[in-house]
Amino acid sequence: MDLQPVLNRIDADIDAATDRLLDLLRIPSISTDPAFAEDCQNAADWLVKDLTSLGIDAAKRETPGHPMVVGHIDGAGPHVLFYGHYDVQPVDPLELWDSPPFEPAIEDAGGVKLIRGRGASDDKGQLMTFVEACRAWKAEHGALPCKITFFFEGEEESGSPSLVPFMKDNAEELKSDIALICDTGLFQSKTPAIITTLRGLLGEELTIKAADKDLHSGMYGGLARNPIAVLSKIIAGLHDENGRVTVPGFYDGVPELTDEIKAQWEALNFDHGAFLGDVDLSEPAGEAGRTPLEKLWSQPTCEPNGILGGYTGDGFKTVLPAQASAKISFRLVGTQDPLKIRENFRAYVQSMLPSDCTVEFTGHGASKASAMSTNHPAFEQARAALSDEWPEAAAFAGCGGSIPIAGHFKTILGTDAMLIGFAKDDDQIHSPNEKYDVESFHKGIRSWARILHAMTKDA
């Protein structure tokens, strides 16, 4: 099938494609809040209807949580599975939005057209880049260029509790030659990137308890244990003077980069000064002796994400709190075992407890890191196709975030996953005023059309 008519169709129909995205963005499919359960159902129904209009055998598949959307269409050549998620993050704090988050509109920002609204970039806009590419193929050739399975999730932003059971129960149906995931972004907002490494994630919440009630700091200060002080010492001890994590066995399974990967990353010319400057910082933190990209992509982390204890309201209250708590997240690499790290972290905390103190733990997720082999021919085909579309040549890159489904495709389905996305660093995903520029949306559609052509032209 000829590619050029498909690209021409995409260019001619970009306004209609944008209008369809705006329709989907109007559905407040917030997965973590039960008040929006019906809206998640409505978003799934919208996608089923849209896929069906393209001749795809699509259906809403119920789970104990929000539904999956699964669609199939036959074709020659390889079997491709495309994954995206239709659920979105909550919108709080609402007062920081410049416009209602579920009343999306096109804004002109200095000549750049922006799609503003929750889910515009993460992940409805990116999900629709692939659907729109398929629409253009169907419009021009009456068929899609290969066999495709569409797999859309409704719980990605709330921990994906139904995902693994669904994949296991439907493994034979979901198996494919390659899985495509569009939930990442451009490198430094300009270079198309194929993500080959993702960090895993472990969450731990701990609560230190001492006295049976809050105490007067004048009557008890200096004599009674202070849970905030105990917790602070524990957190401060999680890193040594060189920035390395001190949890015993933490670095078991952490590999060193190969010379080939180092060379690829160095060639990206990452501007860490600009990267930090965008958030009003200047000096790289983290482990000494590591490059900024190593710290972001190939090294594990241990980060306090929140601390609570004592009086935190306006004014002042002189108390020794009865308890203090913290949330700690670990980003993992290589073959680090999150369950072993959880065990060792809890033992470390117990070893730091003085008398009269106890601790309670709550775990929040435990996923391993993912590494995608680039041996599959689709990786080079996609890199060449992206390089043809964008001013900058495409690159293989890492990602400091965690997208567990990439690993699930391999461990559950035996399928390699390729992560390609078109978000920009300043899209403000998960924050007020999320946006996605129309050019990225447009070029993302064209990119998937080129990738499908590259993967199937010799089939």
3D structure, described in words:
Keywords: Hydrolase, Metal-binding, Protease. InterPro entries: Cyt/Met_Dipeptidase, Peptidase_M20, Peptidase_M20_dimer. Residues 197-356 form the Peptidase M20 dimerisation domain. One of its GO terms (biological process) is proteolysis. The strands form 4 sheets. Strands 1, 2, 3, 6, 7, 8, 15, 16 and 17 form a 9-stranded mixed sheet that branches. This protein has a 4-stranded antiparallel sheet with strand order 11-13-9-14, with helices on one face. It is α+β, with helices and mostly antiparallel strands. 34% of the residues lie in helices and 22% in strands. Helix 1 (4-12) crosses helix 4 and helix 4 packs across helix 15 (438-456). The mean pLDDT is 96. The chain has helices at residues 4-12, 14-25, 37-52, 124-141, 163-169, 171-174, 217-220, 227-236, 259-267, 272-277, 292-297, 338-352, 377-389, 405-413, 438-456, and strands spanning 57-61, 68-73, 79-85, 105-109, 112-116, 147-153, 178-181, 193-198, 200-209, 215-216, 301-309, 319-320, 323-332, 358-367, 370-371, 395-399, 417-420, 435-437.
Notable characteristics:
single chain; 459 residues; alpha+beta; 9-stranded mixed sheet; 4-stranded antiparallel sheet; 34% helix; globular; protease; M20/M25/M40 family metallo-hydrolase; Peptidase_M20; peptidase activity
